[in-house]
Write a structure and sequence with these properties.
GPCR_Rhodpsn_7TM, glycoprotein, mainly alpha
Length: about 400
């Protein structure tokens, strides 16, 4: 992470951001990279160091080798995995993190770079990308070490901050998807009043509310501990240990979380997208009839029909990915407290990463299925990374 990497980064952001801002952003990402690397190195070195100490202190006490802090009697057990499995998990999760961070970063830069993409709709998309990018850079690297090693090495306070940020970015990402659904519904189902209703100021208000709600809700729940009361105190005392970072939800808060964070936004999104799909279906039918009645205008109508059909398919993909990623996690969150938390830790970790995967998929969906972003990505990559093109404008049909 040196001057060469920083040069193309500065060149890429120079058209849309001041030099001081570019330097600040680059410094933040350089710090994140260095800090993440130190955490990974610390986790490996920490485990090797304490395993050696334990073997010297007591060669017959094999069980202590698999503790997060072998010299502490109150230590949590570490995950006992084959080295090959750990390497595979680290590689897979690192690829997922890099795709999440740089994919969403490409979305942010594309919208900032090209004026053709600076609309109220894309303002929501840019905020969603910022949310997913922060999740990938501030949350996922530390969740990766915890998931693979089975230990948390950063203390209780950082654990609470990490859990709060995890909830903040995840909830904000889901709510942003709901905002996009509302925006698309008004644009397609009520286009005449869309420009009056949806302005940059209106969108900014909703985005600000989304971020504030996610932040206040998450930090208040975690730091007040309301999710741990109501019968969980005894259970938490029994299983609490040094080197763990697990967020529990009692029956009430498990249902509240699933209801307000997933079920209600998901129902709104499903209803709106079904309405959009029906409207698009009617439009396609009308356009098909025009083609058969007036062949002279057939090519234009056919192009519009194909465009609207593709838009409907893209909406179906967005909804499918959303439910695939988040439904298992929130189902477990709502049901597990009623089953005395029988879900194994590794299974719950896998469900968390399924949820993270939604933030990984979002830039891929826009990159593969939205022509405007496809063109923007090609121009940015070819110009500033490959040095092939010099174009700074987008042209659309």
């Amino acid at each position: 992470m040196g001057k060469e990497a920083g040069s193309w980064w500065s060149w890429l952001l120079k058209p849309c951001l001041p030099n001081s801002t570019v330097a600040t952003i680059w410094s933040i990402f350089e710090w994140l990279f260095t800090f993440t690397k130190q955490i990974l190195c610390f986790s490996f070195a920490h485990q090797s160091l304490f395993e050696g100490d334990v073997m010297i202190a007591n060669e017959t006490d094999i069980e202590n080798v698999f503790l997060c802090y072998p010299l502490r009697p109150d230590s949590c057990p570490s995950a006992h995995r084959l080295t090959v499995l750990k390497v595979v998990m680290y590689v897979f999760m690192l690829l997922m993190i890099l795709t999440t961070v740089f994919g969403n970063l490409l979305i942010i830069i594309s919208i900032s770079h090209f004026k053709q993409l600076q609309s109220p709709t894309h303002l929501i998309v840019q905020s969603l990308a910022a949310c997913d990018c922060l999740l990938g850079s501030l949350v996922m690297p530390y969740s990766m070490v915890r998931s693979v090693e089975g230990c948390w090495y950063l203390g209780d306070v950082v654990c609470k901050v990490h859990s709060s940020l995890d909830m903040t970015f995840s909830i904000s990402s889901i709510l942003h998807l709901s905002l996009i659904a509302i925006d698309r519904y008004w644009a397609i189902c009520d286009p005449l009043r869309y420009r009056m209703r949806v302005t940059n100021n209106t969108v900014t208000v909703f985005i600000t509310f989304t971020w504030l709600f996610s932040f206040v809700y998450s930090f208040s729940v975690v730091f007040t501990g309301v999710n741990n009361v109501g019968g969980l105190e005894e259970l938490i005392l029994q299983i609490s240990c040094f080197g763990g970072c697990v967020l529990f939800f009692n029956k009430e808060w498990g249902l509240i979380c699933a209801l307000f964070v997933f079920l209600i936004p998901g129902t709104i999104m499903s209803s709106l997208y079904m309405s959009i799909f029906n409207v698009v279906k009617k439009h396609v039918k009308v356009l098909s009839e025009k083609v058969s009645v007036a062949p002279t205008v057939g090519s234009n109508c056919q192009t519009s029909s194909q465009r609207e059909s593709k838009a409907a398919k893209t909406l179906a993909i967005v909804m499918g990915v959303f439910y695939l990623c988040w439904l298992p996690f929130f189902t477990a969150t709502a049901i597990d407290p009623f089953l005395n938390f029988v879900t194994p830790v590794d299974v719950f970790d896998a469900l968390v990463w399924f949820g993270y995967f939604n933030s990984t998929c979002n830039p891929l969906i826009y990159g593969f299925f939205y022509p405007r972003f496809q063109k923007a990505f090609k121009i940015l990559i070819s110009t500033y990374i490959c040095g092939i093109s010099k174009s700074h404008t987008l042209t659309f049909q």
